[in-house]
Design brief:
single chain; 113 residues; mainly alpha; 6 helices; 46% helix
């Protein structure tokens, strides 16, 4: 599986936080921080926008590194992604992602185009 596919099936290669990190793009970091702050109802600063990918060695946002329940579960169960888990379709942790993002589910099932 593409190592940029996150445990939840999202594609880290298309994540603006990763793009800002890889390109050292402070304007994009500011944009992402503003958007994520509004979406999450919490202050997220541009300095917090540093991530190389969920399953890639390297820096991650605080949320992705230690707070994401999906990542923590998959790591604990030693799955490459949630696609390896028999509870994929009934899991309340990953349901919000795969329920709203068909591409994420296809990535986990290995059927993405």
């Amino acid at each position: 599986m593409n190592s940029y596919i996150a445990y939840c099936g999202l594609d880290c290669e298309t994540c603006e936080a990763r793009i800002a990190t890889v390109n050292n793009d402070n304007d994009l970091r500011q944009k992402v921080a503003k958007e994520w702050s509004a979406l999450n109802g919490a202050e997220i600063t541009p300095e917090m926008i540093h991530c190389e990918g969920c399953r890639i060695d390297g820096v991650k946002t605080v949320y992705c590194d230690s707070l994401c329940p999906i990542r923590q579960c998959a790591l604990g169960k030693q799955y490459e992604t949630c696609g390896g888990c028999g509870e994929l379709h009934s899991c309340p942790k990953v349901a919000p992602v795969i329920g709203n993002n068909g591409e994420a589910l296809a990535n986990l099932k290995g059927t993405a185009k």
